[in-house]
Amino acid sequence: MKEKVLNILQKYYGYKSFRKGQENIITSILQGEDVLAIMPTGGGKSLCYQIPALCLDGITIVISPLISLMKDQVDSLVTMGINACYINSSLSSEDYNNILQGIINDEYKIIYVAPERLESDEFLNIIKSKEISQIAIDEAHCISQWGHDFRVSYKKIPYFINNLTTRPIVTTFTATASTEVRRDILNMLCLIEPKVFITGFDRENLYINIVKSSAKNKYLLEYVENHKTENGIIYAATRKEVEKIYEGLLKREINALKYHAGMSNEDRKINQDKFINDEVNIIVATNAFGMGIDKPDIRWVIHYNMPQSIENYYQEIGRAGRDGEKSECILLFTPGDIHTQKYLIEMGTESMARKTIQYNKLQQMTDLVYSNSCYRKSILQYFGEIGLDDCKNCSNCLNEGEVIDKTLDAQKVISCVYRMKKSYGLTMIVDVLRGSKNKKVLELEFNKLSTYGIMKDYTNEGLKNFINTLVSHGFLEIKENLGSRGSFPTISLNSQSSKVLKGEIKVQFKEVKIAKEVRNKNELFGILSDLRKTIAVKEKIAPYMVFGDSTLLSMANTYPTHEDELLNISGVGQIKYEKYGQDFISAIEQYMVDNKIDKSKLEEDKSNVLNEKEDAKQDFFEVTTDQNLYEQLKKVRGKYARIESLPHHMIMTKNTLKEISGRYPLDVEKLNDVAGLGPKKIDKYGESIIEVVNKYVEENNIDVEWKEKKKKKLILDGESRKPKEIALDLLNQGIDVKTVSNKLEVSVSSILGYICEYIKDKNELHFKFNPTIYYCDDEKELIQKSINKFGEDKLKDIKKSLPDYIKYESIRAVIIEKYIS
Ligand code: ADP
């Protein structure tokens, strides 16, 4: 039996192996057992009842609530060479009669029906005369009032089953796992000693990224611009928001569609079809879109607003990457989303009991967004899966973007809100912090506060974003206030705010990074997907039903030109090979001729690429500091600093000592390979260093294997940034120049040099910098004259022309000042 099942999997579907749970479910059904299978969206449920349908004698009836999905499923099956049909209200009476005739003539192995049809006596009488092997109930949660899509007609299913001459195997499938729903399915659908399978809800290929930022629109546009050739869905909470995003995309000439309940059925259908048929890649929609979409190649889903519950969220992101290929799910969150959802709950239902459930679910969703631990783990825990490891595929695990310490700026904002006494709106707080002379600010005497104008270095928009981000992270709170012109939000403090103010907690934000589209789609992929589209149009089916993206990608990267090579690719079964194989092989062969591609050379190239990658990796020379040895070396340095009355870093820099500590040079000769040590320094300090290293190595039994650096770039403790980058990052975190100079052991003058370069490039600074402390007025005048004479880039000439006591740092400070004032 196992062989037969695998054979079907290969022959019809072209898949080489089962996904998690599928094989056990199929085996159970084939042993005649009733089944409840709970699998995540995109987990591969259909195959679990379709394969038994093909193995068992008789007909399988699939009950499905989703009319649009039925047609797609049947089209897919027919494309694979399986006889299937569907019956629902979309059929004309002629088509309906033809299908009934077909059933009488035993033409179909699988029949999809809408639950309402089960009540038709005509249908029941025909079915009664046939051998029915399996009743598969898809979306079985529709039987339960506790589920989110309750359907009255599902309650008729047991009656229908009882009326059949022989009771077939009853199999039920859903992605909704709550205990109430599970209990209702088992009881109300009258399953007999069912086997329950819960395959695990994890969808490993989905990257879960939650971004707390008020710059949603900017993020969205940038992301879409970078991913516009891939299929993606943008979900928004309201129709109005959908329209706004849609217009925004069109303005930027990004081709997109919209979908929401305010549109006519016909327009919605047209847009849905265009999306499914790959005519347009992007659709902006409310949550009305998606039920009944099983397009497998959706590469990204963006939630422009936070959904109402984790169930909704997981179901909606589940629409990405059904084909198992890597896909990205991004949730853009601002606290305003909570208010929108609360409003929707209030408007959506009268029932207090229902409202309470919805509010609870909303709270759990909000907690997820604010959580600092693995998002996937938290979601799966919510669905009852415990004891999991961190996933390493969500934004919390991967910690993408650089962490920037914003405690100081957060303290400024919080202390301003505190000093303003009453709760004010965002604009007023921004005005005070940026020192606005606005009438209201002056009337309220906010210009007398010590926090007035302390965040001038932020732009208006930048500061608004920053404060909103503080709110999204829970460091401040938004309160809705009722006024004469409706409700308005104000910002107030909470218990977290006072902790930040006291320095008990740090405020660290991650810089938001947007990944560029990097999937390996080459020119041949484009040619093959054009061919796929031509075939799809001719056969009136969706392109993915010919072959999925991942199948085309494999073809485009491996150039199969023989039957066995093509059949080896996942997604190419015997039937599809017979239908489309030759067309694809011809296209691939043509491409190879046009581009002079020699397959035998490809393997060679592949291994060359691998070698190159290896080489590239080896361009770096990585060293990890041995902290204990480093401490000992610092003592040696300290001794010389005292003897020579020089600052420590002038003897040897911190990084030189760290490099030595991690490489263990055992003789003086080897010090020539260490950065920052010239012959003079080696002469002076070499012996002492080597003595300490040797002693340490011996005492600690270290097995030293010396490696030459050979001009490779040194990476110390995984730090690949240049000193300049580190310095600017620290300054951006609010750390002052002197501290940065001490920390990095880089002179103040060099740091001012970095700032100088930065400001020339960007024209603004995002940290506080006071140039006037580096010169006195007379010096400034002299420096300015010299700059005017030589030009600000001729630093050496300027320095030479000035008296000796004027330092480089003073010159740089005058240059910087010119840019910031
Ligand atoms: P759902 O559980 O949401 O109903 P589907 O049955 O629509 O999921 O399956 C999702 C996608 O996964 C489909 O494109 C299907 O062809 C594909 N799929 C299912 N099983 C396998 C498998 N064993 N190997 C590869 N792809 C599979």
Automatic annotation (TrEMBL):
Residue intervals of the Helicase ATP-binding domain: 26-195
PROSITE patterns: HELICASE_ATP_BIND_1 (PS51192), HELICASE_CTER (PS51194), HRDC (PS50967)
Gene Ontology biological process terms from the UniProt entry: DNA recombination; DNA repair; DNA replication; SOS response
UniProt KW keywords: ATP-binding, DNA damage, DNA recombination, DNA repair, DNA-binding, Helicase, Hydrolase, Isomerase, Metal-binding, Nucleotide-binding, Zinc
CDD domains listed in its UniProt record: DEXHc_RecQ, SF2_C_RecQ
Helicase C-terminal domain segment(s): 216-369
Named cofactor requirement(s): Mg(2+); Zn(2+)
Keyword Nucleotide-binding in annotation: yes
Pfam name, any one: HRDC
GO CC terms: bacterial nucleoid; cytoplasm; replisome
InterPro entries the record matches: DEAD/DEAH_box_helicase_dom, DNA_helicase_ATP-dep_RecQ, DNA_helicase_ATP-dep_RecQ_bac, Helicase_ATP-bd, Helicase_C-like, Helicase_HTH, HRDC-like_sf, HRDC_dom
Family: Belongs to the helicase family. RecQ subfamily.
Name used for this protein in its record: DNA helicase RecQ
